[in-house]
Amino acid sequence: xxxxxxxxxxxxxxxxxxxxxxxxxxxxxxxxxxxxxxxxxxxxxxxxxxxxxxxxxxxxxxxxxxxxxxxxxxxxxxxxxxxxxxxx
Length: 88
Description:
Layout: H1 14-41, H2 60-78
């Protein structure tokens, strides 16, 4: 087996050189991510939202009614008999 087809790598064995380069790139990207996340985390926190922006929410019973209707529909559909012929 010769390395003639991989002349761009020089005298290195093919997988070794690429894996070292990929590992170096992965380490650099991880370090960049850690530095960026620490810079974002060190910023001052945002103030909390003012109450009153969600005053027009529907009542809780509407959600419960919708849930009951959906569950009842699922149960009704699953209890329907299958329409199989006499040859099944």
